[in-house]
Design goal:
Number of helices of chain A: 10
Largest sheet of chain A: none
Radius of gyration of chain A: 24 Å
Largest interface: A-B, 62 and 62 residues
Strand content of chain A: under 5%
Helix content of chain A: 55-70%
CATH architecture of the largest domain in chain A: Orthogonal Bundle
Shape of chain A: flat
CATH class of the largest domain in chain A: Mainly Alpha
Oligomer: homodimer
DNA sequence: TCCTCTGTGCGTACAGTGTTCGCATCGAGG
DNA sequence: CCTCGATGCGAACACTGTACGCACAGAGGA
């Protein structure tokens, strides 16, 4: 479709027949590239993103992107930091630190589930290089936990957010699997139920402990919300014991 | 090296000059393939594993592997399950459930750090398909938590192991970065320290809360052990509150 | 008006990937 | 001895990320 402009096979190359540079179309820029990459990642998953496809969506050649981004890995880091801006952390010093931390944890989770590739990249890059948005996220967390009175705020943060990251990673992977099936979560669960029960047939405690009853399978998203909230309360209870009083 | 046998350029192809099938060498089998894949993953990291390289290490062509393994993804699932057998879970019903859970959690962590690609694959596949070793790991956990007296063992397990997975993922990513640098962890930390301090310059609480002091950088592995143990105690304290008494 | 310089787009090419297909060969069973 | 199913594998396909060098646009100076 419509190669951009110059090297066209038009019979008489002329300044007049030549298309203008499309200044109305958002120019190829680092920001535009990152934005479009995020859109692609959200819509089609992490393994569907290739430099060629991304270039095509921006009406550009694949290699043009390298003028604005050193490498695909760097692009992924930029995408992660862009998305980190969506995480909301309440201001420090409020009256209820538990509510504030719950809000921050929940915001991280919903962001991670909105962009299921996030946790994958985090697990790969390991926060080696920190973008400004991620830094300020960490800073606001540190402020929050310090104001709450924790003597070792970084340890408390690590405890809470290791839990949050672990749960979000598992949930994101699950949602990705569901999305690939093309069904809704409820449909997928319903179809999976017999197989799951059969798989845990020989395992007494698994079968007894598992929440795989068709009654509870009605609203899987609610179930996940509850599970997340439960574990978070556990961690916060444990932390509260360490708050000097 | 030494292509296996038949289509050789030896002058006179003959049954006698032809190499015997190396029956002493472990034949190409599903188990041998999985074992060698794990060795490669451990030694060179997840992105260094390709079917061609793996075939070469087994003195086989790349496509031969597909006789024993449907796809590379399936091979990764097999590798994950193989490694899951290394996780130790104490028998249920012991006198000290906290010690038992601590043991299981620590065993998961050391396994994840011994095979830093584990958490990556877990985050990708999302435990969609469960191998026998992973199943029996889950079963033993369920037995442990049920015997400990938790009314909702699966929720307790999720709480603890979300934390364990989250922390292990972060640590594994960090260790991978360190390994790529070719330095020891201490050297890497020492070299990174000024950059880290400069990065958190404008962030008051981060700078105050960060453990980036050269004194503590002496033994980073010990620091990580402590951090993991601290968070685990937090979670277990929170869980203990929920134990009917 | 021309001439240079810098920044940008991109066609081509390279080395590598996972996987399919069909052929060659093997060991075992009738 | 002959057949048959299982196994190994070379060639090929459709991709991938990225290096390189050319073509061109616009800006600034002469």
């Amino acid at each position: 479709m419509s190669r951009s402009r110059t090297t066209d096979k038009s019979p008489i190359p002329s300044v007049w027949t030549r298309e203008q540079r499309r200044t109305d179309q958002p120019a190829l820029s680092r920001d535009a590239i990152v934005r479009e990459a995020i859109a692609m990642l959200d819509a089609e998953g992490i393994e569907a993103l290739s430099m060629r496809k991304l270039g095509a969506r921006l009406n550009a050649g694949a290699t043009s992107l390298y003028r604005h981004v050193a490498t695909k890995d760097e692009l992924m880091e930029l995408a992660v930091d862009e998305v980190a801006a969506e995480i909301h952390v309440p201001p420090a010093g409020g009256p209820d630190w538990r509510a504030a931390v719950t809000e921050a944890a929940g915001s991280f989770r919903t962001t991670a589930l909105r962009h299921p590739w996030l946790t994958l990249v985090l697990g790969q890059a390991g926060l080696a290089y920190l973008g400004p948005n991620y830094m300020s996220f960490s800073e606001r967390l540190a402020a929050l936990f310090t104001a709450a009175g924790f003597p070792e705020p970084s340890r408390a943060i690590d405890a809470v957010f290791s839990y949050v990251i672990g749960m979000s990673t598992t949930e994101a992977a699950w949602l990705t699997t569901v999305a690939r099936s093309g069904e809704t979560e409820s449909e997928f669960v319903a179809r999976l139920l017999p197989a799951a029960q059969q798989a845990s047939a020989g395992y007494d405690h698994l079968a007894a402990a598992g929440p795989e009853t068709s009654a509870q399978a009605a609203d899987p998203a609610q179930l996940r919300d509850d599970k997340f909230a439960y574990g978070l309360e556990v961690v916060l209870d444990g932390l509260a014991l360490r708050l000097p009083k």
